[in-house]
Amino acid sequence: MRIVVINHVTLDGVMQGPGRSDEDTRDGFPHGGWAAERGGDDDVTRAWGRRLAAGSGYLLGRRTYQDVLAHWNTQDSPFRDALNNAPKYVVSNTLAEPLPWPNSTLLSGDIPAAVAELRKTPGNDLHIMGSGALIRTLAPLGLIDEYLLCIHPLVLGVGRRLFADGFVPTTFDVADTISTATGVIIAGYRPHPRGPVRAERG
């Protein structure tokens, strides 16, 4: 199965707290809900819907897992049943089974090795939402197959970025792009097969 990152980001790469004001206030982040505040975007909804169709699953870090569980299971939304029914793999060395959300499996210990083994199994895509620390752990090891990014036309200047300082240099191939009426660019990127960029020695 493939591992696919699917996230909202700003022009300056911020991925923190796109959905609501209290989603992620770490480090005093004051701009929570920046994606939701732009209003609905049918193209974004369709793009996410196609990717998160029945049969796909999720690979989530602990913080994202607990936040999504706490939020969506209190909402009267079609997303609730879809999320409950989907297979979810949760990366954590602090949580213990049984996990509270249906269809959840804990991955602990050597996380990269566990994800590498999971990736070898046949099946539909596993999507990483949020989970910046998990992304930064897996990316240098070539364990992420694709990034589907909804790039919003705003700059926040502060916040946790998807590709933060220290992220392994990587060249990407463009899989597809869509420009929406609200200015969001939906872009699919695949890490180039040659792997991480290596700095040339002088």
TrEMBL record:
GO terms for molecular function: 5-amino-6-(5-phosphoribosylamino)uracil reductase activity. Residues 20-29 have a biased composition (Basic and acidic residues). It comes from the Bacteria. GO terms for biological process: riboflavin biosynthetic process. Pfam families: RibD_C. Signal peptide: none annotated. Gene3D superfamilies: Dihydrofolate Reductase, subunit A. This is Deaminase reductase. It comes from Streptomyces spiralis.
